[in-house]
Structures are given as C-alpha cells and as structure tokens.
Amino acid sequence: MEVVWLMLLLAIYSGLVLLATSTNISTRPAVVNIGCVFSFDSLVGKVAKVAINAAVADVNSNPLILGGTKLKHTMHDTNYSGFLGFVEALKFMETGTVAIIGPQSSVTAHVISHISKELKVPLLSFSATDPTLCSLQYPYFVMTAHSDLFQMGAIAEIIDHYGWREVVAIYTDDDHGRNGIDALADKLAERRCRLSYKVPLNPELNQNDITDALVNVLQAESRVIVVHVPVSSGLMVFKVAHNLGMMESGYVWIATNWLATILETSFPLSSETASVIQGVLTLRMYTQDSKLKRNMFSRWRNLTTQESPDSHFGLNTYGMYAYDTVWLLAHAINEFLNQGRNISFTHDSRLKELGGNLHLDSLSIFDQGEMLLQNILQVNMTGVSGPFSLTSGRYLRHPAYEVLNVIGNGYRSIGYWANYSGLSAVPPVSKQKLNDSTAKQKLLDVIWPGQTMETPRGWVFPNNGRFLRVGVPKRVSYTEFVDQIEGTDLFKGYCIDVFTAALSLLPYPVPYKFIAYGDGINNPSCTDIIQLMTAGEFDAAVGDIAIVTNRTKMADFTQPYIESGLVVVAAVKKQTSDALAFLKPFTGTMWCVTGLFFLVVGAVVWILEHRINNDFRGPPKRQVVTTLWFSFSTMFFAHRETTVSTLGRLVLIVWLFVVLIVNSSYTASLTSILTVQHLASPIKGIDDLIKSNDPIGYQHGSFAENYLTQELGIKPHRLKPYNSPEEFAKALKDGPGSGGVAAIVDERSYIELFLSTRCEFAIVGQEFTKSGWGFAFPKDSPLAVDMSTAILKLSENGELQRIHNEWLMGSACSSQTTMLSVDRLELRSFWGLFAICGSACCLALIVYFIQMLRQYYRHYPDESSEPSSGRSLRSSRIQTFLSFADEREDEVKVRSKRRQMERACVISNGEDESIGKSSNTDIGESSNTDVGEGTSNRNVGSTGSSTQ
Hints:
Layout: H1 2-27, E1 31-38, H2 43-60, H3 63-66, E2 70-77, H4 82-92, E3 99-101, H5 106-119, E4 123-125, E5 141-143, H6 148-161, E6 166-172, H7 175-190, E7 194-201, H8 207-218, E8 224-228, H9 234-243, E9 252-255, H10 257-265, H11 271-275, E10 281-285, H12 291-307, H13 317-338, E11 345-347, H14 349-354, E12 364-366, H15 369-378, E13 380-383, E14 386-389, E15 400-407, E16 410-418, E17 422-424, E18 468-473, E19 483-484, E20 491-492, H16 494-504, E21 512-517, H17 526-534, E22 540-541, H18 549-552, E23 556-557, E24 562-564, E25 566-571, E26 573-575, H19 588-609, H20 620-633, H21 646-675, E27 678-680, H22 686-691, E28 696-699, H23 704-711, E29 719-722, H24 725-734, E30 743-747, H25 748-755, E31 761-764, E32 771-773, E33 776-777, H26 782-796, H27 799-808, H28 831-859, H29 861-865, H30 871-886, H31 889-923, H32 928-947
Parallel strand pairs: 1-2, 1-3, 3-4, 4-5, 6-7, 6-8, 8-9, 9-10, 18-21, 18-22, 28-29, 28-30
Antiparallel strand pairs: 10-15, 11-12, 13-14, 15-16, 16-17, 19-20, 23-33, 24-32, 25-30, 25-31, 26-27
Helix pairs in contact: 2-13, 4-5, 6-7, 8-9, 13-15, 16-26, 16-27, 19-20, 19-21, 19-28, 21-28
C-alpha cells in the first residue's frame, strides 16, 4: 500500500514538473536572431566562421542551454571593407537581431558602436582589441578577447627584462594601430623606457611605402622594433626588412599577436615565409589546457573539412574566443528568458523624421537591450579557452599571453606573461603569487635574429653620416682639464683624454665633433651646456662637469672619472712653538678635569687607606702633603706609598690605566707640535665662513655659487667671482680688509692644482660636499651606460691613473701637507675613561663606608643603643664616630675586645652578690638590722677599696 501511495505521489510531482516546463517553453520564443559580421576570407575570419557555426550547432543541440529556443545566426561578409561592415551591421538592425558578434576590425567597431548604443544592440567582438573600445563611450561594445592594453604591458615588461630603453614602433595609421602604440608608450614610460621613433604605415600597405619607412628605421639608434600591424600585411614588413639586411644579428623584432595567429593557422610555415621571420618574438593569447580545448582540437579537422573541403587551416586563439563568444551569448539569452523577459523592438521616431531614400526608419531599438547587456556582463562560464567571464571594466578576467620564439619552420614557447604575476617561465595560474621556484626564471633562452643566443644590445650608433655633437666648455683657467687648441676645433686636456680613451673601448665606432661653448673671457657655466644639450643643441657634454642634483634632473651622467667636492682655501702662516707650547696638547677643560681627578683619586685612596696604612697617618699637615704627593706622583708612576686595602688597590689600578692613556696621548700630541711644521689660519672651515660676514671667492661658472646661496644660505653680496688662479691668489693675499676675500670655495680638483705651486695657502676644514665629474648625455641615452662601462675598464687597467698623472701631477708644494695644525685634545675624547674611574671611586667609597658602619655598631654597641636625648647627645655620637673613623682599625679591635672582657667580669661579680643576699634572708628577721649594718659596712669598704 505504501508503495502505491509513493508511486502516486511521484506521478503527481512529474506531472507538475512537466506542466511547469511546458508553460515556461510556451513563453519562450522559438528562435532568437543573432548576427555575425567579419571578413570570411581573412585568416581570422575563416577560422571564426567555422568556430561560430560549430558553436551555434552545439548550443542548439543542447536542450539544457536555451530550453527549446534555438539560435538563428546570420553571417555577413565585410570583404575587408570598413564601409561594408558598417552597412552589413545596419542590415541586422532591421531584422530583430538581439546581438551582433563582430565586427572583426577595430576601426569598424568604433563606428558601429555608436549605432549599437543608440539602438541598444550589444556588440560582442572576439578580434577587435583596441584598448579604447572598452571605454565608457561605448557601453554596448563587449570585447570577448584580451585587450591590446595587456598585450602592450607584456611587451613593455619583456623590453624592461632585457634592459633595453628605447624602442621603435611600426604600426598602421588607424584607430587600432595608433591606440595600441599609445598604450605601449604608456607601459614603457612606467618602466623608464620610451618610444624613440614611431613609424606609421598607410593602412593600404604596399612594398614601396614599407621600404621607405624601414630605411628610416635603419638610420635610427634603437634596434628594438615592435611591429603592430594587421594579420594580412604583417609578413610584408618582414620580407622588406629581410631584403634590407635588418633581420641580422643585433636586431630585436617583437610582433604583436598577429604573427602568432599566422603561426597557428598556417602551421607548418613554408620555407620562404619562415626564412624572413627567424628569431622574431611574438605573443599569443594564453588559453589553459583543458578537456574542452583538446576535444575542440580533435574535431577541428572534421569541422574545417565540412566548411571548406579543399583547404585545411589550424585553429587559432581567435577561433577559440569566437566559439566561446557564442556560448557566452547563449548563456546570457537563457538567463534573460528565465527572468520572464520578452523580446521587442521599437522604431525610433527621430529616424522617421529624416525620411529620404535611405530607409533609416526601418531601424529599430531593442527595448530590452540594456537588460541583455547586463546578463552578458554577468555570465561566468568555462569555455574552450578556459574560465570565461568579464570584469567590471568589461575586460576578460586574468589576461595572459604566451611568448613565442620563431625557430626554423615553427616556434618555441619561451615563457608567459600575466597581469597578476608578470613574466615567468611556467604557465600562469589564477592567484596573486607563484609558489613554484621555477617561476623566478623570467624567460627561457632565445635564439635571436642572425641565429645568435647572445642578447642584443638593443641599439647602435646610427650610421647615417651624422657626428655626435659634443659640447665642451671653453675654459680660460685650469686649462689642464680642458683647453682648446688655438685656431682649431680640437681640444686637449685631462677630460678630453679620458673621453677619447673611453670611446676607444666601445664595441662600435662613434664619430664625434667637439663644439666649443663660451666667450673665451669668462669660464662658461656647465649647467648652461647641459641645458643646451637638453634643448637639442648638443648630443653630449664633455669637460669638468660636476654631477650635482639639479644637473641630474636634466641629463644622464656616466660613472664619475674623478672624485671632487667643495673645499675652503684660506691664507695660512707657519705656526712656531712658544714657551707655553707644552700646554697646547690639551684644552683648558681637559687640563682642569685631569687635575681635579688627580686630587679626587688621592683623596679617595687616603680615605680607603687611612685606618690601616701607616703611610697615610700622622699629623694633619703630613697627611695633606702625603696625599698630594701620592696623587701627582702617579702621573709618572713614581708613588712610593703602598696601598694595603683591596678597595684602594682597585681604585689605583683603574686610575693608573687612565694615567697611562692620558700620558701617551699628551706625549704624542706634544711631539707633533714640537717636531712637525704646521699651518695656522683664523678660518677653520665652512662653518666659520657661514657665521662671519667676510667676502668669499668662487670660480666663475662653478656650481659653488648656487650651493653657497641656496643650500647654505650665504648672502649673494658676499660672493665674488674670479676667473684664474692668479686672481684667487691676489684676493687671498689682500684679505677682506683690502678688497680681497677671507677664503675661496671651489672644487678640490681645481684647488689641488692651485696649491701645487702656492705654499702660502691651504685647505682648511673638511671637504663639505661629495661629488664627481662625469660626461653628460640626454636622458635615457644608451651611450651613458656604455661609456660608464668603458670608464670602469679604464680604472681597472690603470689607464685612468696614467692620464691623471700625465696632466695633474703636482710640483713644488705637492708633497707639503696642506692640513692645519692638529686639533687639541678635548675632554670628549677621554670622558669615557674619566667616567670609569669616577665610578670605581664612588663604588669603593660606598663599600668602604658600609664596612665601617658595621664595625662601628659592632664595637660601640652602647653608643648605638642609647636613646636620643637632645642635640648634645647627637653631637657626642658624631664625635664618637669621627674619632672611630680616625683610629687605626687594629686599636679599635683591641680596645673593643678588652671592654668585652671587663663587661664579662662585671656580670660575674653581680651574680655572686645576688647569691649572698638570698642566704642572709633565710637566717631570721631578728638580726636584720645588724646584717644591714654589716652589709652597709661591707659596701663602704668595698667602695673604698675600689677607689683605692
């Protein structure tokens, strides 16, 4: 019975389900119209046509997708024409089409997107990848492939990975080409790289136009070339480049995913095609390996045979995205119908008013277009290309690319790129960080054009007959560094020799031409030369150019080839010894503290030794003399008094160590003062100049002027410019009182030459800036890097030092020290020693007084236990303690022992008397009087005898 009821309930439930299903199906349309617009004969279009037909057939054969509704797709061939694509799209707007798959071209998509926005018909394109199509301007355009924005990010990271800084871009001059290259320029700028040269090509490409463009590229410096052109014309660019010899060693060619499309679709390549693209890198949209993908590849040959029996072509990524686009649209339509939506269209009244023969009034608005669009954006599925869903920005999630290297008749995968993990040698995974240790390797080895595995430098000096214009300051002083040979355009000097020696080490020839800058009267400003280089007047700047902050903002500098920095030069005089020269090693504070510690240590040792050492006892006068003698005799380790106490010896050991260090320092400093000839100047360094109001000299054209005024805050009216060493010397000799200067501030390299023949001047204080001289080049110039490497080689092989010795070797005063007198020894150099000694003294005194108090309370218990009865008693106790402290320790111990023995005797006599009194009381009370008298007499006698 229970089984019957159970079967009855199941039948009722099945009937209700069938009723609900039939009701739902009855409300759904039997057919939903979609359109497809692309070029059937293009490499992308013929693959997409097969994929879309297969996808529609798969959707319609699966009842779980649309619940009985069928997709009806209509394909229109644009025949490579943007105009026909526009017209064909308009036709779909007349036939109740809910969505359009396409267009294939980004250029056409820009136009049709405006119409789809007005008529609310979603566009789903699997091949229009222009980054600007995802903007808010085109709300009804849905990109179902990866945007070129991510592809350009991958290319920029590859360029940065190999250390290249300048790139040449070849592209078609249309919306797709321009916007893609603009995205590349932005991504390169994020990595401090740049597009040095853009080569736009006519969309209607021909061989002559390509040849003219590549000839210009041949004359450029950069050898890293990115090609962003349509699939139909890309190989023509490489054929022309091959004929011009631009596919040889030293070049880097990176093609966007158009080349990967050719490799996938036309594999294997013909030998003629493969020969012109050897070593090229290209990117392919990455699709994860899955069962769906493998099944699609296994059935692809049958699908292509059905579509085109006479030809076979491979499945490319665009075909997979076209297949998934149909499924994406099917899922969205299914969700749209499940929500109970109806499909309806309304004619636009504005189009009716136009009239005319164009029949624009036949175009209709899809009333539920916005709802369908939202369902499209919310679909989350897995297709043959992998996880397939859109972000809030209407991009496919987890964009990734595979980097391919063309080798032989095929290609090899050398790595991957994903926007969430960057470059990696392993396939990307959908997580933020890769845990696999192999992911640390960016890319595998590449075989570059010219069949070489050595990574190209990425640039060459252009072989176009143009010389490198090198700006050189026309100096009027210190010509040892830079000097123009009179009557010629040639230069000589230390800086020039270093520059030419570095150029000779470059692996390529660099023709150059020196161009003098300056009026020949005043030394020119090197900052002005760099500004002219930034403006394009020069290609480089060579000379005594200091690398300072404001200049590094305008140009790139090489490795410094000589160290330099600002120093202060002043007039000095020889310092002679006088009668009080022995006091100069220490400052006044040091002398006072040292003397004080001699007295303190002597007093501490006297306190610690006074009670146990006869050497520190006697009359007060003798004790004072002994203490002073002991204190100061330790300076020479000649003290004759011995220390007995442990604490005294501890203090003395620490003090003798301090005396040893102080004596050694004093001796060394005094020896230097008396035996070495020193120079003296009232100016001790830059701090003295800042505090004073005296005039300061500097070299005309030097960066010292800006540094002194802007960084140190010195008033400009205090600064005086000079052009020659002779003017320096005269200004210093005259001094501030006679129209001269108190000091000169200039770079050390100049000052060393200046002082080599002028012994009456010297550097005072320390070098207060650290910098160097380098050669300047425009920002991001690769010459700066190669020249830096050459300078390092010159330093390693000793050539740099040889050039220095040849031009800058000093004479006359070169061996004389230019340092001022040695600084006097100050307390801060010894405060640690004095602190240790003071701590030892304090610790010893604390321990000593604790021990003495314990002895006092042990040997004078009566005084310590007596109650306080006034100031006199307290004073008496203090006097007793002081007397105790002044006595010898052994005498105190003897007296204390004697007093203890006497106290013991008194206690014994008291006990005998108490026993006698107890016996008399027992005899009888009648004789109490006599006994009392006798007792009194005994006491008197006892007292008397005691007195005697």
